[in-house]
């Protein structure tokens, strides 16, 4: 599994509390603890929690599928994540899983807890919901993402017309009920939904991509902003589906973490003025 790609969750001052909550439930550890950024790791997977302020609220357009191997495990995660949360689909037996439930926890993060066959090393899988003007585009998105990143593939696809049952809204038969794709070794699930949800993709849940050099940074940035995507600040962008990515050179983290506070601060100030991150300009600021 690739730890250069990982989700980032946006918080309004409660990132640390949330980090401790998830580490307790999933037996994880905090690997970075700063006022703005908390990094946590569980099951060998990384997650970044960002105290960004009140601007963005997390919603179910991106949820996290937890693949469990026993019914007891499903129950255990469900009970703990439900503390102060609410069920979106009750824990029950469904056509696709003997024991499954969808919930929103007290930090507004949504989880799908699922008894299934774990075919890979990745235990927790971000799941993207394509709806409103994106409804019906899950397949297009999978092709777009897998053509942008190396070591990528589209896995199993279940369409609504494939004789599946148990879904609340009538869906076009060609729409994707459940799709699996991998970008550079990191797994995602996705689905189309015709239901008129009161939310959509926003900056509250983004994917971070750590890059090795400027060429890689340029490639991801140019590809993901193409055909209707848009650039934002500090390495953030939205792709043509409105999904947010952060393209972050490893060199930026290295320079920002320098023990010389004055130099690190110059790097941060240079970064704050950038859209796409330019490594040479960061190094110039560092040495200035």
UniProtKB/TrEMBL annotation:
InterPro entries in alphabetical order: Glyas_Bleomycin-R_OHBP_Dase, PhnB-like
All copies of domain PhnB-like, residue ranges: 4-113, 122-248
CDD domains: PhnB_like
Record-annotated membrane-spanning stretches: none
Protein name: VOC family protein
Lineage: Bacteria, Pseudomonadati, Bacteroidota, Flavobacteriia, Flavobacteriales
């Amino acid at each position: 599994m690739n730890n250069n790609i990982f989700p980032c969750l946006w918080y309004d001052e409660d990132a640390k509390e949330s980090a401790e909550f998830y580490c307790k439930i999933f037996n994880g550890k905090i690997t970075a603890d700063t006022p703005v950024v908390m990094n946590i790791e569980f099951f060998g997977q990384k997650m970044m929690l960002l105290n960004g302020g009140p601007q963005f609220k997390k919603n179910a357009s991106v949820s996290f599928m937890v693949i469990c191997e026993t019914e007891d495990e499903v129950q255990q995660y469900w009970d703990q994540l439900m503390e102060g949360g609410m069920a979106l689909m009750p824990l029950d037996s469904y056509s696709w899983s003997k024991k499954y439930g969808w919930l929103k926890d007290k930090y507004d993060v949504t989880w799908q807890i699922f008894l299934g066959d774990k075919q890979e090393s990745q235990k927790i899988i971000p799941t993207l919901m394509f709806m409103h003007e994106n409804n019906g585009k899950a397949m297009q998105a999978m092709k777009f993402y897998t053509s942008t990143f190396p070591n990528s593939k589209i896995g199993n696809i279940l369409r609504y017309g494939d004789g599946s049952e148990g879904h609340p809204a009538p869906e076009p038969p060609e729409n994707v009920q459940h799709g699996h794709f991998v970008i550079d070794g990191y797994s995602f699930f996705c689905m189309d939904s015709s239901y008129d949800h009161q939310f959509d993709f926003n900056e509250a849940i983004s994917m971070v991509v750590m890059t090795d050099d400027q060429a890689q940074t340029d490639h991801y940035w140019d590809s993901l902003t193409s055909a209707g995507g848009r650039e934002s600040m500090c390495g953030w962008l939205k792709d043509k589906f409105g999904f947010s990515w952060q393209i972050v050179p490893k060199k930026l983290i290295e320079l920002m973490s320098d023990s010389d506070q004055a130099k690190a601060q110059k790097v941060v100030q240079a970064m704050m003025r950038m859209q796409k991150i330019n490594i040479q300009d960061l190094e110039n600021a560092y040495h200035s």
